[in-house]
Automatic annotation (TrEMBL):
Belongs to the short-chain dehydrogenases/reductases (SDR) family. This is NAD(P)-dependent dehydrogenase, short-chain alcohol dehydrogenase family. InterPro entries: NAD(P)-bd_dom_sf (IPR036291), SDR_DHRS6-like (IPR051122), SDR_fam (IPR002347). It comes from Amycolatopsis tolypomycina. PANTHER family: DIHYDROANTICAPSIN 7-DEHYDROGENASE. Keywords: Oxidoreductase. Signal peptide: none annotated. One of its GO terms (molecular function) is oxidoreductase activity.
Amino acid sequence: MTLLAGKNAIVYGAAGRIGTAVATAFAAEGARVFLAGRTRARLDEVADRIRAAGGLAETAEVDALDERSVDEHAAAVGPIDVSFNLIGHGDVQGTPLVDMTLADYERPVVTAVRTQFLTARAAARRMIADGRPGAILFFGGAGDPVREFAVGGLQVAFHALEAMRRQLAAELGPHGIRTVTLRTGGIPETLPADFAARAEIEQSIAGKTMLGRAATLADVGATAAFVASDRAAAMTAATVNISCGALVD
């Protein structure tokens, strides 16, 4: 039996590399996936591939930073079992903090907190109203300072999201709603092909792991599907480490 049979899952940022991997894995495990994002054409391409493989997928243009857009889409979806926000945060990397503008530094923090609050709230409200236990997933996780590369406000954004996730876990637990973060330590497949430091970053990520390789998009999708399923029903207020041993808890 598939892990997510009969479940409805919203994936925000589903046209991105990670979003596509997660949506595809959810559909392969039997979920009806609702692909949300700002570019309908790219979402439709992902949906077509999912349907061609026998999965169920629907698409919608949703601005995950806009309260009305998020709430109206969640209401239109109907019952919600899983929500995973994977939109980009607009972070600027490669510039030391002392050389960075305030706007570039704070953008990922403000963006991450705003969008995750809106989408998590929308899902939780629906789950509570329907008396339907569910899972709200986060991506990133708090981590140690990065010395090798200038990552701007990205780590600050991840720490802020972890604070939100912990509070949501405490408040939503009595309703049977779980919140879990996935941490990877870096996924080389998500780096632009023409990124100047790509090879260096790939080697750095793999070199820190215990398995001699970095996490893949397939790893993220498979793990997300398990965490979202009833087999992980006892898992909340938790961080799932899928870093191949790069991150030691």
